[in-house]
Amino acid sequence: MRTSVAIRMAVYLLATALIPPWVQADAKETDRAKKPDTEISLVTLNLYHDKAQWPKRLPAILAELKRLRPDAIALQEVIGHETLPNQAKTLADALGYGYVFSSTDPAGSPRRYGNAILTRHPILAQDWARLEPLDDSRTALHLRIAIGGRAINVYNTHLHWTDGGGAIRRQQIEGLLAFIARTSKGAPSVLAGDFNAAASAPELQALNPGFDDAYDMLHPDAGADPKTHSTLNLAYFAPKRIDHVFVQHGAFLANEATIILNRADSEGIWPSDHYGLHVRMHLLTPQRLGEGRR
What we know:
Layout: H1 2-18, H2 21-27, E1 39-46, H3 54-68, E2 72-80, H4 87-95, E3 98-103, E4 112-119, E5 123-131, E6 138-147, E7 150-158, H5 166-183, E8 189-194, E9 211-213, H6 214-218, H7 226-229, E10 243-248, E11 252-260, E12 276-283
């Protein structure tokens, strides 16, 4: 995968040089009120469900999401139960976003745990699938959203967690790719989530022909400094980048990939046991609304 990344990085640099200056300038304006049709931003974050004083963690997460105002937010380890409203709904309501939640827990169960996607754009289609093996309670979640008159697919997942579970994750990647093939309908696709493995892990290589790791493309030397580039919270874990945003090869050009929510507050409360990842990307293959519905 490293050779492929090096080649794609060269293509990326060439493509960046060919983008008109006005586009490059716009890509640096993170706080502007209105973005070009072709720019998309996404945050992925493992919420750590209701552990570690969720009510005290919530304000920092919410403040950062309000500041960034991404087009879509992929959340993992989302929970709701008798004494806690669904965390995705809480965030979506506070942000004024819509949301969709997936869980292997039956609808109507008092406790449901899973993944969610939030968006501030119209939802054109949604779906989810359970990933094999069925005893692992993993899902793939999909939204097709309308951004500036264009249809974009956003996928979210959370793969098996054990260090020795590469074969299980490989099986889940195969299921995920089949789900994407079945639901993408030709629209450009972004895949985010907690993969519980480095992007270079053997079990993730099946993603390589169709998707690029946005962070790796922009930080090719990240492996030399794992602490700086870790998405696991260093207060909890050894450094490792396991939370990723993969962009469809040839459809997107990543402009920025930044680790966020990586500071404790004045009381020493961390937003999560993971850091968040914020990616901004430019759509290289503009597609008008409706072209991805065949």
